[in-house]
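Supplementary Note 3. Input sequence used for the single-chain structure prediction.
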Amino acid sequence: MIFRRRDKRPWWRVVAEFVWPRGGWGRAFTYVKHRLHRLPDPPDRIARGIFAGVFTTFTPFYSMHFVVAGTIAWILRGNIPAALLGTFFGNPLTYLPIGVVSLQTGHAILGRPTLHEDEISRSLGGKFLDAGQDLKNNFLAIFTDRVADWHGLGIFYHEVFLPYLIGGIVPGVIVGLAAYYISLPVITAYQKRRKGVVAAKWQALKEKRAKEKLEGEADERGKAD
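The predicted structure, written as discrete structure tokens, is reproduced below.
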């Protein structure tokens, strides 16, 4: 396939580079910034895509952020590649504060008491893993003699997923709009400067060709004389 790596990485390297990319997070963010600047689309569409990507990181749809961000960008008529790049706002350095803010906001909106630190850690870690294990077991129950049990998933939905989903909307919109209004003038200025650089290169190339043409004509006249 076109985008498949030639050197297949072992699983431990995949996990290590997810937590700390090769070259560090500074280099990774620089790469994302350059990719956003070079997207061939109007600045407002790219900025809407960035909004969609950043907003998506405040949702509990882990492992589906690309799909959710692309869908939101399509609805908003934003740039879908920009939305996918915008999801890099969610990373191992930001997932914990994003989860804490989303869960606490969701419990406050639902009129529930706020969570303690140990409850948040358990919700963001253990309960997500437990829900995934329950989904796996219930799926296998379709083909085996296992008994499907939805009790754990029900607890996860009411205590974690629903508060996270509702609570992530407010901070997601706020941070997404901040990313939109910050990126819009930056991308606009970059594209204008890039157009100027390209136009200058084309002008220099035209002048060079015109000069070479005149020199060629002068040489031909000299030979004729």
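The chain is about 75% helix and 0% strand. Confidence is low (pLDDT under 50) at residues 1-5, 14-20.
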